[in-house]
Amino acid sequence: MITETVLPSERGIKRAAEIIKRGDVVAFPTETVYGLGANALDEAAVKKIFEAKGRPADNPLIVHISSLDMMKTVAADIPAEAYKLAERFWAGPLTMVLKKSSSVPSVTSGGLDTVGIRFPSHPAAKRLIELSGVPIAAPSANLSGSPSPTTFKRVYEDMNGRVPMIINGGSCEFGVESTVISLDNGCARILRPGAVTKEMLEQVIKNVTVDPGVLSELPEGAKVRSPGMKYKHYAPKARVIIVAGSLEAYREYVRKHAKERDFCLLFDKSERVPGIHYITYGSTAEEQAHRLFEALRNLDAKGADTVYARCPDTSGMGLAVYNRILRSAGFNIVEAENEE
Ligand code: TXA
Ligand code: MG
Known about the structure:
The structure is a single chain. The strands form 2 sheets. Strands 1, 2, 3, 4, 5, 6, 7, 8, 9, 10, 11 and 12 form a 12-stranded mixed beta sheet that branches. The mean pLDDT is 95. 31% of the residues lie in helices and 21% in strands. It starts with a strand and ends in a 5-residue tail after the last strand. It contains 11 helices and 17 strands. Helix 1 crosses helix 5. Helix 7 (198-201) links the parallel strand 11 and strand 12. The protein has helices at residues 10-21, 43-53, 68-74, 80-89, 123-132, 152-159, 198-201, 212-215, 247-257, 285-301, 318-328; strands at residues 4-6, 26-28, 35-39, 62-64, 75-76, 94-100, 114-118, 136-137, 165-167, 179-184, 187-192, 208-210, 239-244, 263-266, 277-280, 306-310, 333-335. It is α/β, with parallel strands linked by helices. The site of magnesium ion has 3 residues, from loops.
């Protein structure tokens, strides 16, 4: 398949919308990460997304909308809290899991009777949905199991030859995927943390909890509220180990264990361990979110064997960073202690 690239001009987006309308797949930028989109209501089109990504069929897709009217066509029994959250956080990086309407085919929802709905703020994403005239189902535009693409270059690497068109929108603002929540009895449960933080949700909804699957590996046979939780996500080829503890303890641990082809994944270069390769991805949670996936892909490009990652702070947007790095480490976290 020949993959065409267009810029996010009105003309470029119009051509992309034609492809969506004819039942095909387009990769497009959003404010979080790039998405791989098709008409959410067209079963055959949605199947093409799963094929292009190599994604397991039981992992549901998020349906992207460009108006509240569109939400009413894909969701049913919408609770009052959903409207309150929409008012405060849409357009933006929040996905709400609601009961699905009968117009959403079960391939889109991975066989569930719910559907994740998101109203993106990126102008090209919004315009693509508007011009297509249909809700667009879109997972992140990476090959299944790879870190989500946050730049055009990475989408092209993964999707060239697999989809007919990519919209080149440069690099994405937030860099981690949207916050995913479910709503039960007026309470919000965070299934995947993102740029709309727990603290922000608490300004609108009294009771906000973090699902246990966000912070730890679910025991075998546990009830999974979001199918994405059970897959080893965001995995680079390198083995990632999170080393928690003080900077001194981190350094001591790395000095003891690191070999020739190993790397440190640091916030800032002031943390480096002399003689050991390193890359940095920023000192604030926002910067870390923006750069994490690119850092993981760079570590692979450099041929890193084992990566010793500093442990991010979990407040605010840090929870999203911690969740992604924990998954890329396959939940491998060690507590380093200072030697007496
Ligand atoms: O920021 C984003 O959300 C990006 C951009 C493209 O919008 N999309 C994205 O999609 O990250 P994806 O498919 O890579 O991740 C969707 C996550 C998965 O973990 C999936 O299991 C969960 O959302 N999800 C989707 N629908 C769900 C549902 N009905 N119930 C529970 N979890 C759901
Ligand atoms: Mg994904």
